[in-house]
Backbone:
């Protein structure tokens, strides 16, 4: 964490309640654009406060019941900038 902080990476603390709701499972879609599991308002607010555009994914049935969030439900894609 010290190395990342030294490089300007900010961290969002996730409460135990939002951790249980996969609040720490954030999928980067593009720079400052991400996908989070719906029902984690504190995580969403903190990401938006840092300038991110946040999309929500209703992960109740597939993700939470099966133990996977947005990052587990996608395949990596190579993007060119």
Residues:
């Amino acid at each position: 964490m010290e190395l990342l902080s030294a490089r300007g990476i900010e961290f969002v603390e996730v409460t135990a309640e939002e951790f249980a709701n996969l609040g720490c499972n954030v999928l980067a879609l593009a720079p400052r654009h991400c996908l989070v599991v719906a029902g984690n308002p504190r995580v969403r607010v903190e990401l938006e406060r840092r300038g991110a555009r946040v999309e929500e994914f209703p992960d109740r049935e597939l993700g939470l019941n099966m133990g996977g969030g947005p990052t587990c439900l996608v395949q990596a894609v190579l993007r060119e900038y």
Notes: Residues 13 and 24 are 9 Å apart (CA to CA). The first strand starts at residue 27 and ends at 30. The chain has a mean pLDDT of 86.
